[in-house]
Automatic annotation (TrEMBL), chain A:
It is found in: Cell membrane. PANTHER family: ABC TRANSPORTER PERMEASE PROTEIN, INNER MEMBRANE ABC TRANSPORTER PERMEASE PROTEIN YDCU-RELATED-RELATED. It comes from Tistlia consotensis USBA 355. GO terms for cellular component: plasma membrane. Its main location: membrane. Keywords: Cell membrane, Membrane, Transmembrane, Transmembrane helix, Transport. This is Putative spermidine/putrescine transport system permease protein.
From TrEMBL, chain B:
SUPFAM superfamilies: Periplasmic binding protein-like II (SSF53850). It comes from Tistlia consotensis USBA 355. Keywords: Signal. CDD domains: PBP2_polyamine_RpCGA009. The keyword Signal applies. This is Putative spermidine/putrescine transport system substrate-binding protein. InterPro entries: SBP, TAT_signal.
Automatic annotation (TrEMBL), chain C:
It comes from Tistlia consotensis USBA 355. Pfam families: BPD_transp_1. The keyword Cell membrane applies. GO terms for cellular component: plasma membrane. Signal peptide: none annotated. Keywords: Cell inner membrane, Cell membrane, Membrane, Transmembrane, Transmembrane helix, Transport. One of its GO terms (biological process) is transmembrane transport. This is Putative spermidine/putrescine transport system permease protein. PANTHER family: INNER MEMBRANE ABC TRANSPORTER PERMEASE PROTEIN YDCV. It is a multi-pass membrane protein. The keyword Transmembrane applies.
Amino acid sequence: MAARAFADRHRYWLLILPALAAMLIFYVWPLIQIFAISFTEPTTGFGNYVELLSSRAIRTSFVITFRVAALTTVGCLLLGYVVAYAIYNTRARYVGLMLMLVLLPFWLSVLVRSFAWIVLLGRGGVVNDALIGLGLIDRPLALMHNEFGVLIAMVHVMLPYAVLPLMANMKGIDPSYVAAARGLGASELTAFRQVYLPQTLPGIFSAALLVFVISLGFYITPALLGGGRVLMISEYITYQIQEFLKWGLGTALSVALLVATAAVILAAARFVNLRKTLLERG
Amino acid sequence: MEDQAFRTDLAEIAAQRFRRGEIDRRSLLKLLGALGLVPLIGSDKAFADAKELVLVNWGGEPSKVLQKVMGDTFTAETGVKVTVDGSGPSAGKIRAMVESGAVVWDVCDSGPGSAIIMGNQGVATPIDYSIVDKSKVIDGFTWEYGVANYMYSYVLCCNTQMLKETPKTWADVWNVKDFPGKRTFRKSVRGMLETAAMAMGAKPQEVYDFLKDEKGIKAAIAKFHELREHIIVWSSGSASQDLFLQNEVAIGCIWSTRAQLLRDQMPAGGFSVTFNEGVLSPGAWVVPKNNPAGAELAMKFIAHTQDPKLQVEWLKLIGSGPANPAAAAMVPDELKAWDPSSPEHMATQTVYNDDWYAKNQVKAEELYIDALIN
Amino acid sequence: MQKASFFRIAMRTGAWMVLAFLLLPMLVVVPVSLTDHSYISLPGQGLSLAHYVNYFTNPRWLEATWQSVVIGVAVSALATLLGTAFAVGCWFLSDFWATVARWVLITPLLVPPVVQALGFYRFWVQLGLIDTLGGVILAHTLLALPYVTISVFAALANLDRRIPQAARSLGASVWTTVISVVVPAARPGMLAGALFAFIVSFDEIVAVLFLTVRNVQTLPKMIWQGIQDNIDPTIAAVATVLTLLTASIMVVVSLRRRN
């Protein structure tokens, strides 16, 4: 019996192996190489990291990256919470349609959506034209080529990542707690604040982690809508490598970004069930 | 009855399709043979030696013009098919090709700065000056891994419809009170600090004196820091064009070649360009290491582009100033206003200084980025 | 329960406003794609299909679309095959090491796209895979694997462990059990995973920017270059086609699920 179980285990590992090996050889190994390059190009040593730490531009770029990611997270949580709440709790009609509208942008290319925002937010874009046409403003607003435009587009891209974990969380909440609080005379708002909201904290943390971590690595949206002044680290890396072939600095920045991402995830492990948030999301 | 004109037309269409790569050489010859027209476009022997030469530049209208002015004339002379790819020969992409052993470009429309970077990294072929004629290039614009192909300027442009008055100097550009609106400058520092130096009063001839030490550079950087809220950067020539076309910016420091295209695209009278206080700069041909058509053919093509007549034609269509000093005398009067390297324009501009960039670019680049994003 | 209160109405209205915000950019590309101007704008005198004609007749756009489809189908097949086998193996084992392996497989979801693209680039140079279809397919397969394994694993959560055990004790081999008992249970997850994998590949841009030069032109790369160069309404036409395609796939999937 034990021998058979052992032989079985072998076979199960044979199923696992092709994907795992592909991932280790073609994904993890290249990442390790990136790590190595940051210490070996152009010369061996910590030169790239010294440059990284002493550069004001890089420091600013990191600040911008974290600020944009944080603001995107706050925006997504606020908007995403309302949507998730409405889907589960207000007995709104067309719940199916709502769900579909949340998921549709999830599957539409980030590039296409960034393009749409360019069309909307440009100086002669649809929003400005409409506002001028309505007589609300007399000169176009600067909606794009700045952090505002980047945030709008990023919240749009990341919103489904906030709604889905929140929904997963709210699905499991027993409505009888809120009903009991209401029965004891709490107002609807109080019942929400003191009974419902605390129960959704795990969902909020999961959503925040997902949105924040993915936002840290954004490249396409800030590059297209930032006007060059919202220089996030990913764009900085690309620029160093494409224009100046500075692989050493580019890879050192990559390592720094990776470490920052890992640190955020590890710090979040205290508040968030990582397994549920990352490994088992549906 | 067979109609000779019709058959010639068919041959012409076939030849066009061949050039576009839609049919291969064998089918073309078969077709021409069937039509009895092989001699019309040259013998089989000429085709047997024919290779393809792939040029690469930065897309848009300039690609079409490069094909027409330099490519097709080279084909007419040598029978070598020339294709222009507009996908942009950034140093990173060239290195990618060379390293992967899959080089598909023969001659790249690059710049002296990139030529030096690529030379240092071992991904470019040295220019063979026994084929390319140094005397056909303005003094000082030949390098080991690149040679000037045309001249362009960083010039002050504005959308006059968005402004009451037209700024004429860089000092005006920094004056946001009298000249409101967004400005566009290049994402890279190249050609940019010069404008800030002039805005602070340096004469075009004195710009690099002004920028010679840290004090001058820091002052120019501080000047950009001051203007940062009003700046949108452009990272490619076509992007700079688009910023004007979409009315995103009122004022800009962009390439004169793009300014010439904008002159025709913007509403009549709605766009102004001045070479006053411009920064005159050379572009450079660079040949990637192990280019598919071989170094010799690439050098021959570069030598072909040195023909002053072709350079004048290039100027006419796209505003690329001749790099061959012999062309100056051939520029017709009506084009002189658009020739970046005409004597009149030389007098009011500063000339891009490679030595300065070799020494200061890395540091300046970082300070410049910091000034804009901080 | 309670009747509609201010709080509920506010939440519901807010939700619809957020959904409008989600939908707005996708709707705006439609009129722009029908503009009669040659630049990005709302239609002036009338509607024009010129930009669709340009998309459907321009060999470069068509070639790029075709390459994206080819890459997407190959990625979908490969990732579904590898990912399903992986998830099934992990499901059987369900021990510490299998969990570690699952964490390894989802790393592409967390690593910044530019960083992984740099990694691919350097290794692909050594392997001679730069600017080849195979190189892009391999990279995209790795990026799609997490989606397949997660959805197959989710599907297997509903499978009673005693069923394969019973099959085994009745003498079926491991392989027979996998093929005839586990895979059928995993099928909904496989289908979803295959679709995810295709879409991930079809939309991917960052790795493509680093790994391709000239031979491989995907649709996102064309759009990217178009936005960077001259923004012309053809991109709006392409965006509209892609949006409609995505929406109709979603409708089909959700209808299938309902049946």
